[in-house]
Amino acid sequence: MISPLTLITGNSRAERARLRDLLHSIVQRGLEQGSSFCEARFFENRGNSVVIENGVAKALGSRISRGVGVRVIFGRRWGFASTNVPSRASTETALDDAVSAARSIANSGTEEAQVITPMPETGTVVHDVKTPPDAVSPEQKVKQILDMEKTAKSFDERVKDTFVNYRDSWTKVAVCNSFGTSVEEVTPRTYVYCRVISKEGANMQTAVEYSGGVEGYELIERAQSEELPRKTANKAVKLLSARSPPRGTHTVIVDQRVGGLFMHEAFGHNSEADAVLGGQSIIADKMGQKIASELVTIVDDPTVPGNGSYTYDHEGVMAEPHTIVKEGVLVGFLHSLESAAKLRARPQGSARAQSHQYPPIIRMSNTYLAPGPMTLDEILRDTKTGLYLTGSHSGYVETQKGRFTCRVEQGWLIENGNLTEHLRDVSFSGLTLDALKNISAVGKDLRIDAPGTCGKDDQSISTDAGAPHFRIDGIVVGGRT
């Protein structure tokens, strides 16, 4: 098998050692210039993409990004600069620019910078895959993605528009800082997304299916074997005969993807400590308090399999599971070195950056509701009337107000514990803390299966989310007619 390190850098062991020496020398130089903290972070990303729409290959692309970001605390102020040329001269210039940036705001009255002193980490992690995407030719990728799109297109004459997007990437991050940390991590990710639009008269419906994670090209083989495009087309056609949901306040049971969307959008962003420090979180003053049903335990865990998985964050902190809510009680936030210092907490590896051109900020990884004791059948039998909702479309949250809206693909009426009428164009909304307190049943079938990217402060980062099936009482349901 082709070595990921060869694929991503083309570097020999000696060249990798030179990279580490470069980062170490920049950190040492930063300390010699008077910085109280210095961090040098190398980033390299190589990726490929294929876009097929209605039988036409719209795009076949490849991308390469590499460079070094340098961050310092100088005169109790942050300074950051980056370079796209990871040479000694360019990286030293980036360091000088970072120090100058910190000096320029020394008397600005901005809040003083501080970081907690973490346990120094050393190590190299390479996430192995069965089939490296770079071992598959562009021609084969295009052929297989075209075949997937054709499967969806030919499913039914009511299928009017088909779109399949494939992408893969290899990312290497190396972090060195003045606490003695020196780590490297190489991560492959592969993703495929299928969208089908069906039409009958004036009625148009959209269905999507997707799969992604820290995997190689074997993900595409699995998507084909599981008939991902056929499932998408079948869903789009069936939605044509579904009806709009009953509006009003209802009990809802949500599946793993809808539940994951809620955990990420409605709650997860509130748990990021920079939002807490900035006064933008509804749970900022609720540490140790009961904020949810005792059935609710919420975890953000970079160490479990998922699209948001990693071993070290981009500050070089070893990742650990982060329990945010335990049996209804708020017990933790997600932290960077800075927020941990300000809130007197222990960092557990939640700071990441989109590339070397950005400083690390607090981000979620794989966020999920922990499983409970019930099966889906038991939850349904215990629900007289309500709605069963599946397939997340999108979510929106007003973090400061604690308000959320989730739009889902489809649903079914629940009558006397049975699924009856098929529903389409469903959304539900409410206040986050009210919804958490009204969770009245949690299933045992946890699945982390909502791979994607999350945007924050102009940075996008790989994340995932999930849940078991769970029930919320008294939630506002809406939809299009």
In short:
By secondary structure, the chain is α+β, with helices and mostly antiparallel strands.
Description:
The chain is α+β, with helices and mostly antiparallel strands and 481 residues long. The chain folds into 2 domains: 4-239, PmbA/TldD superfamily (PmbA/TldD fold, 2-Layer Sandwich), CATH 3.30.2290; 248-479, no CATH class. Helices cover 24% and strands 40% of the residues. It has helices at 4-9, 13-32, 88-104, 138-153, 218-225, 228-239, 256-267, 273-277, 337-343, 376-381, 432-437, and strands at residues 37-53, 56-74, 77-83, 122-126, 159-177, 182-200, 203-213, 248-254, 298-300, 322-326, 329-330, 351-352, 361-362, 366-369, 385-398, 403-415, 418-431, 439-442, 447-448, 452-456, 459-467, 470-479. Strands 1, 2, 3, 4, 5, 6 and 7 form a 7-stranded mixed beta sheet that branches. The longest helix is centred in the N-terminal third of the chain and has 20 residues, at 13-32. The relative contact order is 0.13.
The fourth-level CATH homologous superfamily of the largest domain is PmbA/TldD superfamily
Low confidence ranges: 1-10
- DSSP helix count? 11
What shape does the CA trace take? Answer: globular
In the residues, how many domains can be counted? 2
Compute the CA-based radius of gyration.
Answer: 24 Å
Number of strands: 22
Q: At the first level of CATH, what is the class of the largest domain?
A: Alpha Beta
User: Which fold name corresponds to the CATH topology of the largest domain?
Assistant: PmbA/TldD fold
For this structure, the quaternary state is single chain
| CATH architecture descriptor name of the largest domain | 2-Layer Sandwich
Largest sheet, described in full? 7 strands, mixed
On the 0 to 100 scale, the average pLDDT is: 94
Could you tell me how far the N terminus lies from the C terminus, measured between alpha carbons in angstroms?
Answer: 54 Å
Give the helix proportion (percent range). Answer: 10-25%
Secondary structure category: alpha+beta
Q: Hey, roughly how much beta strand do the residues contain?
A: 35-45%
